[in-house]
Amino acid sequence: MNTFLEQIELLADEKDGIAALSNISAALKLHDSELNWAGFYIVRNDDLVLGPFQGKPACTHIPFANGVCGRCFSEKKAVLVEDVSQFRGHIACDSASRSELCVPVVISGRVYALIDLDSDQVSHFHEEDKKEMLQAAEIISTAWQHYSWNI
Ligand code: SME
To answer: What does pTM read for this prediction?
Structure first.
């Protein structure tokens, strides 16, 4: 496991889910200097709700079927967008965002949250980033179950 994922594992080892996700969002942002936004959307009954994040203030509610986050939620898989201007329905929370990576946190086949990363550079994210974020999501999923986070 690389140092970044080890750090995520340490930060996820926390009984309070909000505290853990807050620290993890800081670690995600610091991990990559070309990110302008890094954080979480939490799956609620009616929509996706803004969770702990680092970056400019963002959309607080996203309908399940909308945007990059909605695609990630609906398909239960990572969505890598090289150029957000080419993604129909992209929701621009920060007008500086040019590319995006969204990864689901899944527990027993159900999506509980999304990790969302935005970069102000086109084509910033690659397959290795996707793989690494899927591993981070897996670590978060394991901690969520272990501590029964009530987020
Ligand atoms: N761009 C996202 C919205 C969330 S912000 O990027 C923080 C989307 O299209 O769903």
So the answer is: 0.97
